[in-house]
């Protein structure tokens, strides 16, 4: 474990994050080192400083850099760095709410929508945090986040993401919610309304009790319950596809709607029941944008928990996995954020 981390450890006892406040912090000294590093194209020094300071300290560095040089630090970093390392350092320089807004915007940009990233952020963040992210999104992109989500999604998924965006941590009766979802499961026709209502308007502790109660009542896991619920309509859709070889009108919608609902609810339920395992599974893809998004978003909050879940899920540590998939100074930055072997 490095010396700088040990210095920061005492002042952050009990945190579940891996990036902690640097105890001997002097922004002017950091700026001088960064200036020299930029002149010498010394990316390793830049990585060492920015990955060993928490976000408020990085914001102080950016402010001091601008005061001393009359230049924007992020712009200077983009000129000096390139590739994935450039993106990672730029990501680290964003305040948390701005970074989450940036990830949402990127998930909806271009052709197609990254539904998993949308769900990851909307499911794992509290209603209060989402209101901050929404305000930041609206200010940064001059667009309303809810309207953007509506434009990028449709049908039940649209209802879910909008409800998640506007969720409130209201108190609900556990048994009442179990009965409501159980009624939906036992009904002949797919009814997404109670699922969307309950999954998006209860706090995580309450929801875990509800989902556990539903599993006990039916003697099945949530994935099995959802699979059983939607299997009938999916089978109908498959038969239609096999018979006509072409999708058509209502039958086409039944198939795709059921399949979409199944996937959406499975992801949402898994994220609620065990967010750390859900995020660990996302990390296991080792897709750069996904991995950096999660590590930057959670490195000061609960990356230690995600690391433990990753080890349990994959059988290898996140630290080792990073060494197998990345290289150079980009790898060094990721390893510093990850912090240590498990």
Flag low-confidence runs: 1-13, 232-256
The protein's oligomeric status is single chain
Order of helices and strands: HHHHHHHHHHHHHHHHHHHHH
Q: What is the structural class?
A: mainly alpha
| Overall 3D shape | elongated
Number of strands: 0
**Main beta sheet:** none
How many helices? The count is: 21
Summed up, the domain count is 4
Helical proportion? over 70%
Rg to the nearest angstrom?
23 Å
How large is the share of residues in beta strands?
under 5%
Please describe what this structure looks like.
It is a single chain. Helix content is 75%, strand content 0%. The protein has 21 helices and no strands. It is mostly helical and 342 residues long. The chain has four domains: 90 residues, Orthogonal Bundle (Annexin V, domain 1); 68 residues, Orthogonal Bundle (Annexin V, domain 1); 100 residues, no CATH class; 62 residues, Annexin (Annexin V, domain 1). Helix 2 packs across helix 4, helix 6 packs parallel to helix 18 and helix 7 packs antiparallel against helix 8.
Please write out the topology.
Elements: H1 3-9, H2 27-40, H3 43-50, H4 55-69, H5 73-80, H6 83-92, H7 96-108, H8 115-124, H9 127-141, H10 145-152, H11 155-165, H12 174-186, H13 193-201, H14 204-218, H15 222-244, H16 249-273, H17 275-283, H18 288-298, H19 303-314, H20 318-325, H21 328-338
Helix pairs in contact: 2-3, 2-4, 3-21, 5-6, 6-18, 7-8, 7-9, 8-16, 10-11, 11-13, 12-14, 15-16, 16-17, 17-19, 20-21
């Amino acid at each position: 474990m490095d010396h700088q981390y040990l210095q920061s450890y005492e002042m952050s006892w009990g945190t579940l994050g891996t990036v902690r406040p640097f105890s001997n912090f002097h922004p002017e000294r950091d700026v001088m080192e960064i200036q020299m590093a930029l002149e010498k194209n010394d990316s390793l020094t830049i990585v060492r400083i920015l990955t060993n300071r928490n976000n408020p300290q990085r914001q102080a560095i950016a402010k001091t850099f601008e005061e001393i040089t009359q230049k924007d630090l992020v712009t200077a970093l983009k000129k000096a760095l390139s590739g994935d390392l450039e993106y990672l350092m730029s990501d680290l320089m964003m305040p948390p709410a701005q970074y989450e807004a940036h990830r949402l915007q990127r998930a909806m940009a271009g052709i197609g929508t990254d539904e998993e990233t949308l769900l990851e952020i909307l499911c794992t963040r509290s209603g209060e945090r989402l209101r901050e992210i929404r305000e930041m999104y609206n200010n940064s992109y001059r667009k309303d986040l809810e309207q953007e989500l509506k434009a990028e999604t449709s049908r039940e998924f649209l209802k879910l993401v909008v409800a998640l965006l506007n969720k409130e941590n209201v108190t609900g009766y556990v048994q009442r919610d179990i009965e409501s979802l159980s009624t939906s499961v036992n009904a002949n026709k797919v009814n997404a309304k109670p699922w969307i209502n309950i999954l998006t308007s209860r706090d995580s502790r309450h929801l875990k009790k509800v989902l556990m109660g539903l599993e006990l009542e039916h003697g099945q896991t949530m994935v099995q319950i959802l699979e059983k619920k939607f299997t009938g309509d999916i089978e109908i859709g498959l038969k239609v596809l096999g018979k006509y070889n072409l999708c058509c009108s209502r039958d086409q919608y039944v198939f795709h709607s059921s399949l979409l609902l199944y996937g959406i609810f499975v992801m949402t339920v898994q994220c609620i029941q065990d967010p750390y395992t859900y995020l660990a599974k996302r990390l296991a893809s080792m897709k750069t944008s996904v991995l950096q998004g999660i590590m930057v978003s959670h490195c000061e909050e609960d990356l230690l928990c995600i690391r433990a879940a990753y080890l349990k899920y994959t059988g290898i540590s996140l630290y080792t996995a990073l060494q197998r998939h990345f290289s150079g100074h980009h790898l060094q930055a990721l390893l510093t954020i990850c912090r240590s072997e498990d």
